[in-house]
Amino acid sequence: SRYLANMAANRPCHVTVLGEEYPTDHMTNISPTIVSKLPLKLHTQPSHPLSTLRALIESHFPSYAHLSSLSPLVTPYQNFDLLSFPADHPGRSVTDSYYVNKDLMLRTHTSAHEVEVFGRGETKWLLTADVYRRDEIDGSHYPVFHQTEGARIVSANSAGMKEIEEDNERLAAHLERSSIEIEDVPHLSPMNPCQPAHDPKHTELIAKNLKLSLNSLMLHLFGGRVGATAQNPLKVRWIEATFPWTTPSFEVEVFFRGKWLEILGCGVIYQPTLDNANVSDKLGWAFGLGLERIAMVLYSIPDIRLFWSQDPRFLSQFKQGEITTFKPYSKYPACFKDVSFWLPEGQTLHENDFCDLVRDIAGDVVEDVKLASLIDDFTHPKTNRKSLCYRINYRSMDSRSLSNDEANSLNTQVVSCLRDRFRVVIR
Ligand code: FA5
Ligand code: MG
């Protein structure tokens, strides 16, 4: 029946991912472009900005285990269920995540490995990896990006709490001597409560250790570079948040070059997560931060596609261990093409499906895809067919300019693929 379903949906029966063949099914939506990114591991390529940033973060946590080679293929159980995501969480849908098939997906965050790493007995660790999310296309969104997960757990007894208290004193003393201005929130609040299994006093100590550890990391990453002084300190802002596997939970923003930048999510680990890893006798914190957003501001890299560039004019600018300002080379002219079409009656087309189709054909030559809904997006009053218009911006970021003929040829392929795959009628 899977075979017949694949035939009916015009879907190959197998897909090859990282050299292994996997059966496909109704959930399969991993695209050739995505498959091609899996072996690249930019965060381990010497002298790549993401690799330097990973090493810079690791150097701030010298006593932690540093992991960076776990496979991006995980089960939905690991990515969601073990972390207490509800069954109807939108992140599980095929419009938001990439599936090899219903039992195997690409991790959407590094938290997918928390239970596995705690289960191996690690108590202080960092894990850097590529993560995958279906999203729109523009200068700050790319379907692959990188995260560093960090976590620390201690024994839930007086010895564990003493270890945390001593560390808190050390970190607080260090931060007191530094030029940092912190906008804090209470460790606990009615919206951000203590867990039933925890003593609030312990939770306060753990939350404080989390905040001190991350404020100190922010100083390490940004402090020197903003030239923070007593008059002009580095500004860090804590905000209450929610994640299914932490409470209390927080997000951290840093004020950098005139803007608040969301850096990370974190919190006190929900005890059932630690139970799943067979370390019920411990408690602690975890955080997950996005590397591209930080690297873009530290290196002044203007477009997220550049991280994937093979152009020597990009790669040769960087040295492992050094943060330098990116010198932009000439930006080639943009080439805008509109694609307008009717959808078959009653059919919808998710923007992420449209974007993956364009990405598969045009690769990194596509800079931006916008639903030009104001120009043309209406439902035909008589037939009830829906019309959409997308505006695609093609622009080469690499060694040479894109001719109008080349853009036309790419756009023609987009149109014919759109017809085949979604049975649309071009207007
Ligand atoms: C998470 O992914 C959680 N796993 C973080 C976490 C870990 C919480 C451990 C609690 C405990 P979020 O989706 O907000 O949360 O992503 C975390 C960070 O990744 C963001 O702060 C941001 O820096 C980065 N990020 C998220 N989405 C994107 C994107 N589309 N492009 C680039 N960076 C992104
Ligand atoms: Mg977030």
In short:
With 427 residues, the chain is of the alpha+beta class. It is built from twelve helices and 18 strands.
CATH 2nd-level architecture of the largest domain: 2-Layer Sandwich
User: Looking at this structure, what is the CATH superfamily of the largest domain?
Assistant: Bira Bifunctional Protein, Domain 2
What ligand species are in this complex? adenosine-5'-[phenylalaninyl-phosphate], magnesium ion
Percent of residues in helical segments?
25-40%
Question: What does this entry look like structurally?
Answer:
It is an enzyme of class 6 (ligase). Keywords: Aminoacyl-tRNA synthetase, ATP-binding, Ligase, Mitochondrion, Nucleotide-binding, Protein biosynthesis, Transit peptide. Belongs to the class-II aminoacyl-tRNA synthetase family. This protein is an alpha+beta fold. It has helices at 2-8, 32-37, 49-60, 76-79, 114-119, 158-176, 200-223, 271-276, 291-298, 312-315, 351-362, 404-422, and strands at residues 14-17, 20-23, 65-67, 73-74, 99-101, 104-106, 124-132, 144-155, 180-183, 234-243, 246-256, 259-269, 282-290, 335-343, 366-371, 378-379, 386-394, 425-426. It has 2 domains: 32-72 and 107-315, BirA Bifunctional Protein, domain 2; 331-426, Ferrodoxin-fold anticodon-binding domain (Alpha-Beta Plaits), CATH 3.30.70.380. It contains 12 helices and 18 strands. The strands form 4 sheets. It has an 8-stranded mixed β-sheet with strand order 3-7-8-13-12-11-10-9. Strands 14, 15, 16, 17 and 18 form a 5-stranded antiparallel β-sheet that branches. It is globular. Bound molecules: adenosine-5'-[phenylalaninyl-phosphate] and magnesium ion.
